[in-house]
Prior knowledge:
Elements: E1 3-9, H1 13-26, E2 32-35, H2 40-46, H3 52-60, E3 63-68, H4 83-93, E4 98-104, H5 117-120, E5 124-130, E6 140-144, E7 150-154, H6 160-175, E8 180-185, H7 191-204, E9 211-216, H8 217-226, E10 233-236, H9 238-251, E11 261-263, E12 271-273, H10 292-304, H11 309-324, H12 338-349
Parallel strand pairs: 1-2, 1-3, 3-12, 5-10, 8-9, 8-10
Antiparallel strand pairs: 4-5, 4-11, 6-7, 11-12
The structure holds nicotinamide-adenine-dinucleotide (NAD), 3-isopropylmalic acid (IPM) and magnesium ion.
3-isopropylmalic acid binds at residues 84, 87-88, 242, 276, 278.
Amino acid sequence: MPLIAVLPGDGIGPEVTTQARRVLEALDLGLSFEEAPVGGAAYLQSGRPLPPETVALAKRADAVLFGAIGDPRFEALERRLRPEAALLGIRRELGLFANIRPAKLFPGLEDASPLKAEVVAGLDLVIVRELTGDVYFGEKGRRTNQEGLRQGYDWMGYDEGEVERIARIGFETARKRRRKLCSVDKANVLETSQLWRDVVNELSTEYPDVHLTHMYVDNAAMQLVRRPAEFDVIVTGNLFGDILSDQASMCAGSIGMLPSASLSGGSGANGMYEPIHGSAPDIAGQGKANPCAAILSAAMLLRHSLENEASAQRIEAAVAQALVGGARTPDLGGTHTTQQMGDAVVQALR
Ligand SMILES: NC(=O)c1ccc[n+]([C@@H]2O[C@H](COP(=O)([O-])OP(=O)(O)OC[C@H]3O[C@@H](n4cnc5c(N)ncnc54)[C@H](O)[C@@H]3O)[C@@H](O)[C@H]2O)c1
Ligand SMILES: CC(C)[C@H](C(=O)O)[C@@H](O)C(=O)O
Ligand SMILES: [Mg+2]
């Protein structure tokens, strides 16, 4: 019986994860679930945002269903105690270097995006974001500079091995889709990006069937608003991928629509699945959160970790059907509660 570790986290994390778990249970796949605290919720219980028992469960499980972390009450804590440290810590502990973030326009959501319907028509892209390197994990600190001023610093860097393994996932992903790979960097300024570009170019000789382009991140941000449907697969570093995926979510109508898979390689072993959004403290506890991103993350879990493509597609079809049937949370311009949106998806599964 496959074991799913459920880490609901903070804010709307538990609300959306409840709906994702319901959907998985409704499929009757004989999964077992075990829950553990993470983030601010875990800090309150044990003084640690990422308790060792939570890491142990995640490692023991076949896959992890993650909600969201973040709590404004803990913003002033030192970095290692903040909820965000738990998310970075678990990604590192599980070696989840590849973060797959699909942005797709679901039928009926043409008018949910602030972009014109004709601009987002046909939107179907995947951001392949590197997840365990870059400026996120370089040396950080505070010091006093020569003028006696306080200075904060975060070292940015990638080694060629890190670039090659994520670029390979980008090429492989593109190969299974429309065979277009856009590598996004800031090679006109950053040495890190120049190495990134060199390694991607070198690897491209193994993928002559994939059309590779390079784009600076500032241009990519603009093109995502101008012609988002032109993109097929984007491969990029940790920081740029974080920012561009939130932006791409609005092309699809809402940040509440974008799921993600975090993987440790080509296989889904120990994969972690989470919506790209955060704990949304502004709407937490009000039943306003859109659970679709979490539900679609559960579909990715079935696809990548349990190799159950048919059930993954059933969930995606049920989300589409619920939306076509008019189910909409407030972020999509509707009045459905989180629970009612979950009801509509479960109903559509039957
Ligand atoms: N993966 C994660 O767990 C993750 C991701 C991003 C941010 N965070 C953390 O979450 C906290 C809040 O960060 P933030 O406000 O910058 O980003 P956020 O993603 O939590 O929220 C941004 C905006 O989007 C809305 N939103 C987010 N998810 C939604 C959903 N499912 N349905 C409807 N509306 C939704 C929120 O109400 C808010 O207005 C911070 O502590 C941050 O560090 C965690
Ligand atoms: C909360 C934060 C550490 C995280 C990130 O930057 O990776 C989040 O924004 C995300 O997109 O998953
Ligand atoms: Mg983010």
